[in-house]
Amino acid sequence: EYAYFSTGLAYYKQGKFTRATKRFQTFRQKFQKSKLIGEAQFYLGQSYFGAKKYSQAIAEWRYLMEHFPDSARADEAGLMVGQAFMAMGDYKQARKEFRSVIKKSDRSEIKQTAHYQLGESYFKQKNYDQAIVEYRKVIEEFPGTPTAAKAQFSSAWCFVEKKDYSSAIQEFSHVITDYEKSELFPEAQYMIGNCYYYLGKYEEAARSYRRLLAGFPTGDLVDDGNYWLGWSYFKLREYDSSIEAWRKVVSKYPDSSFAAQADYQIGEALFRQKKYNEAENQPVSYTHLTLPTN
């Protein structure tokens, strides 16, 4: 029995969703009184979801909630029903499902996730004001949790989408001050730099990028940070500093999407300094400059 379930779970984790669904279907037929029946039913829905067969997934999760309401997976199944409707683009029904979960569940982690997903549903429809309202509920009702950190970050992104960069800076700053151990910390610092850049406040942008690079010298955003640090210095006409930042991108991250453009910009900065001979040694095939979109 356990081996049969474990095989289905292994298929699921390997992304072999067709095999997983068959295994869990057979498990349900053979072991209806098993203590694992709720788990098997849940992962049957998960397997359909993984295969993007959302209607089938919803049907299996609803079966779980109806026939095994005491299962530890019942509340989670309700969340996943909402996620499936989100995946199908039916945001109104998704919100109905999430609100039902919030009303019925007494589990904190389930309720906070449902609140967060309500915010996500509005965000996907570009209803940023209402998304912010839902994210705020997570931040206020579940302070200090990883979900609250995500909600804080997502709230900041709403302001970026609204092009309210000053408010976005305030919101991203809360990620740093209130959730300093969050994995979102470095990206929040990076986005603060970007928002200052969008506002034309290049000194503040450069300061934010330097904080990112000093705090996370081996992080995933080092090439991004150096590239836009270079641009910030370039805008300030501090060409030596811009060249230094861009050379780090070229030398340390040659496979970065920014490397070729950084190499070109070195030549542009040298040209601005009237160092024409040095500028000629830089690539000239890149005829456009890439700026952060705002």
Question: What structural keywords apply?
Answer:
mainly alpha; 74% helix; 294 residues
Note down, in words, how this protein is organized:
- By secondary structure, the protein is mainly alpha-helical.
- The chain contains 16 helices and no strands.
- The protein has helices at residues 2-13, 17-30, 37-50, 54-67, 74-87, 91-104, 108-124, 128-141, 146-161, 165-178, 185-198, 202-215, 222-235, 239-252, 259-272, 276-280.
- α4 runs antiparallel to α5 (74-87), α6 (91-104) runs antiparallel to α7 (108-124) and α13 packs antiparallel against α14 (239-252).
- The longest helix is centred in the middle third of the chain and has 17 residues, at 108-124.
- It starts with a helix and ends in a 14-residue tail after the last helix.
- The model is unreliable at 285-292 (pLDDT under 50).
From the spread of the alpha carbons, the general shape counts as elongated
Helix content: over 70%
* Number of continuous helical runs: 16
The H/E string reads HHHHHHHHHHHHHHHH
Beta-strand percentage?
under 5%
Classification by helices and strands: mainly alpha
On the 0 to 100 scale, the average pLDDT is 93
Provide the fold topology:
Layout: H1 2-13, H2 17-30, H3 37-50, H4 54-67, H5 74-87, H6 91-104, H7 108-124, H8 128-141, H9 146-161, H10 165-178, H11 185-198, H12 202-215, H13 222-235, H14 239-252, H15 259-272, H16 276-280
